[in-house]
Amino acid sequence: MxxxxxxxxxxxxxxxxxxxxxxxxxxxxxxxADRTFRPRSGKRLSDLAARTAIYGDILTKEPDGSLVRIxxxxxxxxxxxxxxxxxxxxxxxxxxGALITREVLSAVLAAxxxxxxxxxxxxxxxxxxxxxxxxxxxxxxxxxxxxHEQLKLSRSGLDGALSRKTSELxxxxxxxxxxxxxxxxxxxxxxxxxxxxxLTEGVRQVEAELRHLMSTYRTxxxxxxxxxxxxxxxxxxxxxxxxxxxxxxxxxxxTDIAGTTRDIxxxxxxxxxxxxxxxxTAGLRESEDTVERIGIERAREKVESAELVIALFxxxxxLTEQDTALLGYLDGLISPVIILETKSDxxxxxxxxxxxxxxxxxxxxxxxxxxxxxxxxxLFIDGNINISTDAVxxxxxxxxxxxRAADAVSGALAALDAGLPExxxxxxxxLAMSALAExxxxxxxxxxxxxxxxxxxxxx
Length: 460
Hints:
single chain, about 450 residues, six-stranded mixed sheet, 15 helices, flat
């Protein structure tokens, strides 16, 4: 990936549509656009002011050097640095046929642009400082969103909620560590600084805020990345019926024949404000059927790696040995388990032992589904978080960086509490800054040096 090239790509989905958009970005974007787009007004695109849209003809060069009109459309000019990528950019809208769109892109490439690599426009936006890494991740969530909650969370990320909060913590750490190093490196300057108690309290406050930010990951992960959720139970306990009810479609085959589901069915659904990566599994029982036995083994593997297990028991019939064995199996799981007594529209012939807090559900009447949604929400969503505005760690990468930062700050605090020299705590604070810098990509050393020398008077 040569980031000095001028790149181009089709920025709208493939296929037939009303319009399509071809984006050109780089130092030569305007000159390349001049060779492929001729405004009807007679002006040149390169002479237009920034954020100007103009109607004209889209041209391609024939082998004999002549220009041929292939379509008409609208070109919009964006000038650096006020563009998505921070570079000169031209966006050409043409008619949305699949063939004509490829023809326009081919004309742009023939005029000197390079085909953009996957994500290269956004990568350039990050390199130019137009988009932080956390915002880029939020954009990816926005583009892949399947739930309204994911849209809300991605908007918060794009608006910079997480970036602003981590920047605040980074700046506070920079202030603290630069105070330490300024006094250590320039003792003769008699620079006013923090007392040891003030330094300790500042570090303690940052640690508390980092731990709080880390705690948002449970909610962010549940919405953005989704909770791996497995439906398990004996044969004919209602797993596939519940799977279909949660998805709102007939995705799984439902019959009265035991062992109908033999392999893992997977889909994604928003339920209870949580994104569930839902798995319907084979009924857990002993089987002589080779294919079914493989499905049962896969079901057990899914259950043991799941973040949430929803176990179903058909209490419209007497409990079986399979049901009793399953209860014992569930007791040994680490992940949270929600137990359902299914087919509540039928007369109950059994009930689970009192130590199990079960929800009675019926996929025919809908009874218990709201209670199930509320239970899931209570397990994974922090009701004190406003996902539309609050800073939320939404990806494993962000959480890992926050965790490293918090651990390093804890190390600095331990050094201070133990009475060790302040510059030892400073080393841990630098590690914390480096971890925070990963979230949006900052230059730690240069930041600290700049902060130290900002303490000197103007004439020094």
